[in-house]
Design a protein that fits this description.
Layout: E1 2-3, H1 13-34, E2 44-46, H2 51-64, E3 79-81, H3 87-105, H4 109-114, E4 120-121, E5 124-125, E6 130-131, H5 141-146
Parallel strand pairs: 1-6, 2-3
Antiparallel strand pairs: 4-5
Bound molecules: zinc ion (ZN).
């Protein structure tokens, strides 16, 4: 998830990104369901000061929906864990670091190692979202999809 804060107006970038993640993860699970992999999902997030707000946002999405609909395959509110206690969060941190290196520092080395691992279906990348100005050029897989 790469979000240029200038592109979302007054919206909170963490909440914007969280909504995107919830929607994209749910759609990922939906596509698996259609392929007879009837799994449900659970969000595991790093403990943060945003825990209470993200918990209530998740509940709001379940009851009132998010801007694209209702999540149907995420079974509970997000779990917040100490990143030192689980490798899941440490893996996510590595992905975040690779994205930060590419999009903030212009170094693609780590991103190139993971760029083919983002969720995709039929050549469309769903697991990477890059929100930027329309006139900005970008070669990432998410932006390449938009040009098709
Ligand atoms: Zn891009």
């Amino acid at each position: 998830m790469i979000v240029d804060k200038t592109q979302i107006g007054d919206e909170d970038p963490v909440e914007y990104a969280f909504e995107q993640i919830v929607m994209r993860f749910d759609k990922f699970l939906m596509r698996r369901y259609r392929n007879n992999k009837k799994d449900k999902g659970l969000l595991v997030l790093d403990k943060s000061t945003r825990e209470t707000r993200l918990q209530s946002l998740a509940i709001e999405f379940k009851s009132a929906g998010h801007r694209w609909g209702f999540p149907r395959n995420i079974v509970d509110v997000p779990f917040f864990v100490d990143s030192q206690a689980t490798r899941l969060i440490q893996y996510a941190d590595l992905v975040s670091y690779a994205l930060w290196r590419k999009f903030e520092q212009g170094d693609s080395e780590f991103f190139e190692a993971i760029s083919s691992s983002f969720d995709s279906d039929g050549g469309v990348v769903h697991g990477l979202h890059h929100l930027k100005g329309r006139s900005e050029a970008c070669d990432c897989p998410a932006c390449a999809n938009r040009l098709l």
